[in-house]
């Protein structure tokens, strides 16, 4: 999780390559299903023998294509998010904290003053077995950073302690 650490700069990176590859596989299979459904559906719609069922077949084809297109979009969005990940750069020389990551098929970048940070919060999520990591700003705003599984708690606490130490120093 910590990529680079000096007394003036701390870089954290979170990405899930394995999940990204799995999401790419899901996306590929969904795109293949979409293509095959479209090809078979068009071929079946063109058959002249049962024209009385044409509208029912067309409606069924459209519904299945919409479902499969949704799977393709969700898989692509997940793969992009997992592969890009999120990077935090705490830079005392520039007096900034830069947060970059993926958001809806584009990169998102946010810069904050390092002095606007009050603390780093790690809280258990009530509805799932994850810990949420937030930057708490002096204004009271919380900037979400990550969700970490319960079984990675020790590693998360170690990283959080190093970030807190870096901010205090």
Topology, number of strands: 8
Number of domains: 2
Describe the global form. Answer: elongated
**Proportion in helices:** 40-55%
Largest sheet: 5 strands, antiparallel
Structural class: alpha+beta
Radius of gyration: 23 Å
Mean pLDDT: 86
Itemize the secondary structure elements and their pairings:
Elements: E1 2-5, E2 9-14, H1 17-45, H2 54-84, E3 86-91, E4 96-102, E5 107-113, E6 117-124, E7 130-137, E8 142-149, H3 153-168
Antiparallel strand pairs: 1-2, 2-3, 3-4, 4-5, 6-7, 7-8
Helix pairs in contact: 1-2
Describe the structure.
This protein has a 5-stranded antiparallel beta sheet with strand order 1-2-3-4-5. It has a 3-stranded antiparallel beta sheet with strand order 6-7-8, with helices on one face. The longest helix has 31 residues, at 54-84. The chain has helices spanning 17-45, 54-84, 153-168, and strands at 2-5, 9-14, 86-91, 96-102, 107-113, 117-124, 130-137, 142-149. α1 runs antiparallel to α2 (54-84). The chain has 2 domains: 2-15 and 85-168, PH-domain like (Roll), CATH 2.30.29; 20-82. The chain is α+β, with helices and mostly antiparallel strands and 169 residues long. The model has no long low-confidence stretch (mean pLDDT 86). The protein contains 3 helices and 8 strands. A hairpin with a 4-residue loop joins β4 (96-102) and β5.
